[in-house]
């Protein structure tokens, strides 16, 4: 058996390590730096992470503090994002505080990892389009209220890297105001990340929409680093103004309705043309639009105060009472147990925290995190108990979603992802031959027991191999019969002659 470990074994070991460790290991050698930054290794590491069900994900949390006028990002624990002893275990905590002071969760640096967004929004905070495989897609402010020329960014907090996407660059008629909706998702077949942009045009009376469908539909591909226009859905699906999107089962989902939208009230609908609530979807791989049914109970509800969400890996409908004065506030959480099957919609529970429930912010392992008029609350549906973690924020800024660390974007410089992906495909056969010949300077005899000892040898061994090369060179010099001092004298003489 060979004394050295094959490259394939080293790659397999590295692909099982955490992101933070791999970022450090890029400093071991140029070879490791190149290896960890390749498209193939990043994909391999991603697939291993996706298949790992033992380690719970983080929760990415964002809120805008109106007192400090600061947008805050943090990683929280999925198991228990807001522990009951968060304040009491901190050495600087004094209880009780004066009645006029509020306990602020993020004033006590424990139980969370603070994140630093690389760019400041030109508005109060970024609008988060979605998260996929460790990538966060964001744009300035709410898309439906921004100018047509939006510029999204992709940000990977786990490797501290972000990229600005090019402008869509589509000019719209000045007589209409654009209403924009965005979605973000991943195509596992091609390994590509895509942003979908739907633009509706409406007139100055704020109710008259132009056409029967979105006037502009565009797709951005990270692989090509470019936008392109595609055909619309061919049907009139009007996405709810406050609707967020979620990506699951290869598609982006929005809550929408079909029917006559030039109305102000439920009485304006006729029996022949009632409102019909649907879930409007866009498949990232096939790039086509489809629709899914909502629960029968909500099919014909006018001004449905709900939004799409994810409970675990299941598509869900949750309360979205952004209009607190609505007489039809929703407090129920529904889940589609069998994706695509309308009959599988199941009511999980009601959120019993009283009035003024604006919306569900996110889900932890045993809790649902809700926004009650700008105050964040944690509700346990099984125990029917709620707690106040001490977070007050601008309601529309509250965001929470599961987050999985990855190396995605590590190999992206402009449109370098496209070039690298093409070159890796073209030279796969050539590289395979080279890999069989190359060995990594790690001896099994020196590896020791356990992965920790092995990785320590992996980090230190390249330096020893360089020393051996140096000693071999010195031995060769002595065998020629010339000492190093004689060589130095000859070198000086040659220098004088040249001068």
TrEMBL record:
Biased composition (Basic residues): 430-440
Domain F-box: 1-46
Any Pfam family matching the protein: F-box
Signal peptide range in chain numbering: none
InterPro entries cross-referenced by the UniProt entry: F-box-assoc_dom_typ3, F-box-assoc_interact_dom, F-box-like_dom_sf, F-box_dom, SCF_F-box_component
Biased composition (Polar residues): 472-486
Region: Disordered, residue numbers: 420-499
SUPFAM superfamilies attached to this UniProt entry: F-box domain
Identification of the protein by name: F-box domain-containing protein
Lineage, top ranks: Eukaryota, Viridiplantae, Streptophyta, Embryophyta, Tracheophyta
């Amino acid at each position: 058996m060979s004394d050295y470990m094959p490259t394939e074994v080293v790659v397999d070991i590295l692909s099982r390590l955490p992101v933070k460790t791999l970022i450090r290991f890029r400093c071991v050698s140029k070879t490791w730096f190149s290896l960890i930054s390749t498209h193939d290794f990043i994909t391999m590491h991603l697939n291993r992470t996706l298949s790992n069900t033992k380690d719970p994900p983080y929760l990415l949390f964002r809120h805008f503090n109106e007192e400090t006028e600061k947008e805050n990002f943090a990683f929280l624990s999925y198991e228990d994002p807001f522990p009951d002893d968060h304040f009491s275990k901190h050495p600087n905590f004094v209880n009780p505080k004066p009645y006029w002071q509020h306990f602020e969760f993020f004033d006590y640096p424990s139980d969370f990892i603070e994140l630093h967004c690389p760019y400041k929004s030109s508005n109060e905070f970024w609008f988060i389009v979605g998260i996929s495989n460790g990538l966060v897609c964001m744009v300035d402010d709410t898309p439906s209220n921004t100018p047509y020329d939006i510029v999204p960014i992709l940000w990977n907090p786990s490797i501290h890297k972000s990229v600005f996407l090019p402008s869509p660059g589509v000019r719209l008629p000045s007589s209409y105001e654009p209403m924009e909706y965005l979605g973000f998702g991943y195509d596992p077949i091609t390994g590509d990340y895509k942003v979908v942009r739907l633009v509706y045009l409406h007139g100055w009376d704020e109710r008259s929409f132009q056409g029967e469908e979105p006037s502009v539909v565009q797709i951005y591909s990270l692989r090509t680093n470019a936008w392109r226009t595609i055909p619309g859905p061919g049907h009139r699906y009007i996405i709810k103004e406050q609707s967020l999107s979620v990506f699951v089962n290869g598609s982006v989902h929005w809550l929408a309705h079909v029917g006559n939208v030039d109305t102000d009230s439920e009485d304006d609908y006729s029996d022949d043309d009632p409102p019909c609530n649907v879930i409007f979807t866009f498949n990232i791989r096939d790039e086509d639009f489809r629709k899914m049914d909502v629960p029968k109970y909500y099919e014909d509800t006018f001004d449905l105060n709900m939004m799409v969400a994810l409970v675990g890996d299941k598509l869900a409908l949750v309360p979205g009472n952004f209009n607190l004065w609505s007489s039809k506030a929703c407090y129920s959480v529904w889940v589609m147990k069998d994706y695509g099957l309308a009959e599988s919609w199941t009511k999980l529970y009601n959120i019993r925290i009283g009035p003024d429930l604006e919306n569900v912010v996110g889900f932890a392992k045993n809790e649902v995190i809700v926004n009650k008029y700008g105050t964040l609350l944690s509700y346990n549906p099984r125990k029917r108990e709620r707690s106040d973690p001490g977070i007050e924020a601008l309601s529309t800024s509250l965001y929470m979603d599961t987050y999985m660390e990855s190396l995605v974007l590590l190999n992206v410089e402009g449109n370098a992802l496209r070039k690298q992906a093409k070159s890796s495909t073209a030279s796969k056969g050539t590289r395979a031959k080279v890999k069989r010949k190359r060995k990594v300077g790690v001896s099994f005899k020196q590896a020791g027991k356990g992965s920790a000892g092995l990785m320590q040898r992996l980090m230190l061994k390249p330096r020893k191999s360089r020393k051996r090369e140096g000693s071999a060179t010195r031995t060769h010099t002595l065998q020629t019969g010339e000492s190093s001092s004689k060589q130095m004298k000859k070198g000086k003489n040659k220098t004088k002659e040249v001068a």
